[in-house]
Q: What sequence folds into this?
């Protein structure tokens, strides 16, 4: 567990190099550059579709890294790669700044409505346990180490905010790391973690994370 914590913190330091780039963006200009993004991610980065991530409030550096990874095929998605290839460096910074400046609105936890109260309680209890303490038996690091107690992450290190994110998106993302459809995590941090997790644990962490409330939104 300590080993995974060290990897996570090392990866965060590596990502810090993107912070200076992120501050160069202009949110007002960025808004004019996101027209093509609105169909999937919403006008303000608050996606209406559970399988599309909410981008509002995410660290600019994190968004910039993901777009760059789509451009270089470091992260694979045909639709996103097509859009990313048309974004130049200056616009990339503006887009990152725009989404970071937006306030995240509550997302629908659609799948949760299909479960009984007892199932919801069990799932969220397991999710909280794994998020706060990890799993000593398998060496899984606690999620809060990188993503923060409230799911609002180490923003200065460009780690994604999990609070109030679509749980369906989080589930699919964790499974993509596990089956290696996604491999753009620094130092293989996420892949090492999800390799120790069952599908039930992945679902539990995703739902618990989505119910967290970021304290960063209160400052906007």
A:
């Amino acid at each position: 567990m300590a080993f995974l914590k060290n990897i996570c913190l090392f990866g965060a330091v590596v990502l810090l190099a993107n912070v200076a780039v992120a501050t160069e963006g202009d949110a007002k200009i960025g808004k004019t550059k996101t027209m093509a993004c609105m169909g999937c991610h919403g006008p303000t980065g608050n996606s209406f579709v559970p399988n599309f991530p909410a981008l509002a409030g995410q660290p600019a550096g994190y968004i910039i890294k993901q777009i760059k990874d789509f451009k270089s095929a470091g992260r694979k998605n045909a639709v996103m790669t097509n859009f990313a290839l048309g974004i130049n460096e200056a616009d990339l910074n503006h887009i990152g700044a725009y989404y970071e400046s937006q306030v995240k609105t509550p997302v629908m936890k659609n799948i949760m409505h299909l479960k009984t109260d007892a199932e919801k309680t069990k799932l969220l209890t397991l999710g909280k346990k794994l998020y706060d303490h990890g799993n000593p038996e398998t060496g899984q690091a606690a999620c809060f180490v990188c993503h923060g107690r409230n799911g609002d992450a180490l923003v200065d290190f460009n780690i994604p905010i999990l609070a109030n994110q679509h749980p369906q998106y989080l589930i699919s993302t964790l499974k993509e790391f596990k089956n290696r459809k996604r491999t753009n995590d620094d130092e293989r941090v996420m892949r090492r973690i999800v390799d120790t997790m069952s599908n039930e644990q992945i679902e539990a962490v995703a739902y618990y994370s989505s119910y967290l409330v970021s304290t960063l939104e209160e400052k906007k």
